[in-house]
Amino acid sequence: PDTAAPTTTDSGTTTTVAPPDTAAPTTTDSGTTTTVAPPDDTGTIDETVPAVEQVTLAPVDVDEPVEFEGGIVAELVSVEQIKVKARLPGEISGPAFVATVRLTNDSRRRLDVDGVTVTLEDRDGIPSSPISGDPAEPFSGRVARGDAADAVYVFAFDKDNQSQPVTIGVNYSADEPVAVFVGSM
Fold it and tell me: Which of 18, 32, 85, 119 makes an SS bond possible with 169, Cβ 3.0 to 4.6 Å?
């Protein structure tokens, strides 16, 4: 149908679903009516959405910090090789790199670090599998203005069978470029 059809639930709440390109009035439990417009362009499940290219900053040595616009600084505090035990399906026991990453917040606002991603690739660009067990402690929460936080990321990496130098990518926000650290361990 091309008209909004009100639906009443068992609890007595009435919801109106609007056809595409129209606004639908909705009534809350308190009796307030609000008109909600549908999204401008909803697309379809058959539609292919073009990929958004990820911007990367110029690569630096693993010993150098990277300063993003806006006052955020990423650096590798340490990178060492250890032996790890797999804990989850898909993880691999054996040699691994453990990278301690520091984010310093010199911006004017607190920094949400729940979405930080860290990756490790070998010389050929082949990504290493992350390991979630000890000693991994990824970023979480927020970093106040003027503070810094460290996190630990672990990646399966067999120096005898994978090529170096390695590339470690640090992305603190999907809207920001990736810091790229390169070096041999």
Answer: 119
Domain shared by 25 and 114, yes or no: no
The CATH number for 105's domain is: 2.60.40.1240
Q: What would the pLDDT profile of 60-78 be if each residue is shown by its tens digit?
A: 999 999 999 999 999 999 9
Give percent of the chain above pLDDT 70.
78
Q: 46 in a domain, yes or no?
A: no
Provide DSSP, the chain. Answer: --S-EEEE-TTS-EEEEPPTTS-EEEE-TTS-EEEEPPPS----TTPPPPPPPPPBPPPEETTS-EE-TTSEEEEEEEEEEEEE---STT---EEEEEEEEEEEE-SSS-EE-TT-EEEEE-TT-PBPPEE-STT-B---SEE-TT-EEEEEEEEE--TTTS-SSEEEEEES-TTSPBEEEEE--
List beta partners, residue 24: 36
Segments forming the whole domain that contains residue 145: 60-183
pTM: 0.72
Q: What is the pLDDT of residues 106-115, one digit of tens each?
A: 999 999 999 9
Question: Do you know the residue count of the chain?
Answer: 185
